[in-house]
# Entry
Amino acid sequence: MDKNDSKGCPVLTFQRMVSGKYKIRILWDLKDGPRRYGEIRNGLLRGASGSREIAPRVLSRELKALAEFGLIQRKDFGTVPPKVEYRLTRAGKSFVPVIAAIRRWGERHLTAAA
Amino acid sequence: MDKNDSKGCPVLTFQRMVSGKYKIRILWDLKDGPRRYGEIRNGLLRGASGSREIAPRVLSRELKALAEFGLIQRKDFGTVPPKVEYRLTRAGKSFVPVIAAIRRWGERHLTAAA
DNA sequence: CAGCATCCTGCGTGATACTG
DNA sequence: CAGTATCACGCAGGATGCTG
# Structure
C-alpha cells in the first residue's frame, strides 16, 4: 500500500486509483471538459444497465478520492444555488489514453454486441 | 451486471474481469508462457512490497475466476505430486496490450517514486 | 444543487488448518 | 504440490433523510 507498490507494480497503483465502480467512467466523462456534480451523476446513470440512482455518498467519495489522487480538481463557485465543477488535472488527462485502450479492448472483444 | 454492462460500458466489464489484487498481475506473468501454481504464487510475492504470503484461498479464487471468464486455461497433469499449469487463452492474450498500456502509464507517471 | 450523516449488507481479502 | 474448509474482518456500496 506504500510507494513500493508503485515501483514494484504500477498496476497495483493504477487499480487503487481507479478502484470503485465509477472512477474510470468519471474520468472518461471529464475528458470532454469540466462537468458539474449533477451532470456527472446523470451521465453515470445513462450508461448503466439497471442503476436507478447513485447514492450521493458513493459518488461523493469517488470524487473526493479522485481529487486526493490529484486526478481531478474541484472548483466550487460558492454561489447560493450551489455550483461545483470538476475537471481533469494534467495527471488525470494522462489516464485518458489508458482508458481509451480499455475501451478499445472492450469494443473489440466484447463483440460490442449491440 | 448483465451483458448490458458490456454494451453500455465496456469499462465495467473490464473492471469486473480483473477485479481483485492479483488477476492483472497473473495475466501479465502468464504472457511469457504457462506457469505452475507455485510459480505464480512466488512471482506474485516477488513484486509485492510487504506481502509475506498469499492466502491459497485467494489465489485459488482468482485463478478460478480468470478461468471462468475464459482468460486462462487450467491444465491438470493428474500426477501423484500434483502439477497444474495455467496458460493464457486467446482472450487472455487480448488483455496483454491493455495491461501493457497500464504499465506504460505507470512507468511514465509513477517513475518519480523510483 | 451539491452534498453530509447514519445505518446496513455483501463480498473481497486474509489467516490457519487440513487433504488427495 | 496444489489446492479446499472454516472463521473473521474491513470496507466498498447502497438506501434514506437532512442541510447550507
